Amino acid sequence: MAHEKMLGELAARRAKALAMGGPDKLAKRAAQGVLDARARLDVLLDEDSFVESGLFATSFRPEDRERTPADGKVAGFGRIDGREVGVVSNDFTVLGASSSQVNGKKIKHVKDIANAKGLPMVFLGESAGARIPDRMGSAGRAILGQDPTEYQRIRTSPWVSAQLGACFGSSTWYGCMSDFVVMRKGALMAVASHRVTSSAISQEVDPEELGGWKLLTGVSGLVDVAVDTDAEAIDTVKRFLSYLPSNCNQAPPVLDASRVAAHDQSRLLELLPELRTKVYDARKLAEVIVDVDSLFELKPRFGRSIVTALARIEGRTVGIIANNPMFKGGAIDVDACAKATSFLVMCDSFNVPIVLMVDQPGFLIGLEGEKRGAAGRIINWMNALALVTVPKLSVIVRKSYGQAYLNMGGGRNSDEVAAWPTADLGFMDPKVGASVLAREGESSEDTKSKSDALVRDTTAWGLASLYEAHAVLDPRDTRGWLAAMLDIHRSKLTGGVGQHRLANWPTSY
Asked: Please, which contacts does 202-211 make with residues 24 or more away whose CB atoms are closer than 8 Å?
């Protein structure tokens, strides 16, 4: 056969690269129930769709070339449900997928192509951090910082990270730059490993306390969802992307009508308590209003007085922001502000209309909030809301008190405002307000009189009479009203594509 020697060398080099860190390391991972970098891509991508970039890349250091197949990062392009994506899957069996000069070039190439061509990026994270000695000393400085836009994020297309092992260095950075992060329980995400951190601060550090899933989903909020296995994490990545367009110049995908089912809307009357002081779970209201099985919650363990979720109404993607009285009575704290703001940024960047479901008693005030910059977080939210150019629809379910009325879409901060007959538009709870206004020695009758006065003109009917609510709805009609308003407010001039004024908003703050 012509060129037999050449083709034989190609086959041998290919086999060596595909063998990754060798059979022993791969067998050990398999025994632990953890997928390797290439197996993860097999689960993520449509069959036979992966086109690799850099299979034959190795470390630039002569002493490491023979032990760095693909230089520890598997990169390229493929399809998810028929849509093209860029991918980087870290191969921990090769020097811990540590960051180097060559594999950094691979990431940059795939990322640049995805940004330029409007493809989503998926990062399958697991990395030990910077490779030593590649990045040590003066020579290492010649590697770092040569791309001034390496950590710039302008949301031309969605980015998703799955943290599937020990994630330090680049896996952490790209996780923090992503629109959505899912984590396998048992994985870690931090600036540096617990061993490095322990040495730096001369104190023993527990890995889970440093960067485990409970911290990241419930305290810092840097991770959206935690799951049990690699396969679940990858399925979650695919589900998230199913709600979004491939890039900012497209409207989100629409499901075929045959795949859309609606709940019995009369359930809303059962879920909302008649007693105004009794709590309920806002997620259950939202689940009834949107298409069956379409509610996909982001950051459920963080800022829990606010629910943020992607969903569909009659097959069309929407973003839900709902106050949840189940937690802190629905009062908005610093974490809830950060959560809502980042969600607004994502929705506006990728042309997802926003539905606000309102039942909030105001901001959670106090010393802790002030120390954490509550006022600044509130204004961040207001600034983001003012810059949003996708449709914003607000439904006032019960309470909408104080300044937070504006944050939750009150006034002209929404394109349309509807209220349920249960709406309450006071500045604060009437009993609390009367207590604030009470004078020393005042009788209980006078206090009650002030409380009654505060209730006047705070109903849905008062708001509607001033045309500050455009509709007062039977709760059972909410889904139909939202569907109609979404059709009206989607820009026919731009095909449902907004102006993306928030595209370069910080990804975490």
From this structure: 211/167
Tell me the per-residue pLDDT of 133-157, one tens digit each, with 9 for 90 and over: 777 767 777 777 778 888 899 999 9
Q: How far is C-alpha 338 from the chain's CA centre?
A: 11
CATH architecture of 257-424+459-489: Alpha-Beta Complex (3.90)
User: Rounded to an integer, what distance in angstroms lies between the CA atom of residue 253 and that of residue 255?
Assistant: 7
Beta-carbon contacts of 183 under 8 Å, excluding residues fewer than 6 positions away, are 162, 163, 164, 189, 213, 216, 217, 223, 225, 226, 227, 233
- pLDDT value, residue 197: 79
Do 11-242 and 257-424+459-489 share a fold? yes
Contact 428, 402 (CB under 8 A): yes
User: If we measure between CA atoms, which residue out of 354, 353, 287 comes closest to residue 324?
Assistant: 287
Return the CATH fold of 11-242: 2-enoyl-CoA Hydratase; Chain A, domain 1 (3.90.226)
DSSP annotation of 81 reads: T
- Residue numbers of the chain with a pLDDT score lower than 70: 137, 427-457, 509
Say if CB 283 and CB 301 are below 8 A apart: no
* CA 472/CA 461 separation, integer angstroms: 8
Residues 6+ apart with CB under 8 A from 95: 59, 64, 67, 68, 72, 128, 131
pTM of the shown model:
0.93
Which H, E and C letters describe 123-148, residue by residue? EEEEEECECCCCCCHHHHHCCCCCCC
Q: What per-residue confidence (pLDDT) applies to 440? A: 56
Amino acid at the residue 373: G
* CA-based nearest residue to 346, from 122, 151, 160, 503: 503
pLDDT in tens, 6-64: 999 999 999 999 999 999 999 999 999 899 999 999 999 999 999 999 999 999 889 99
b/e map of 251-264 (b: 16 or more CB within 10 Å)? Answer: bbbeeeeeebeeee
The domains of the chain are located at: 11-242, 257-424+459-489, 429-457
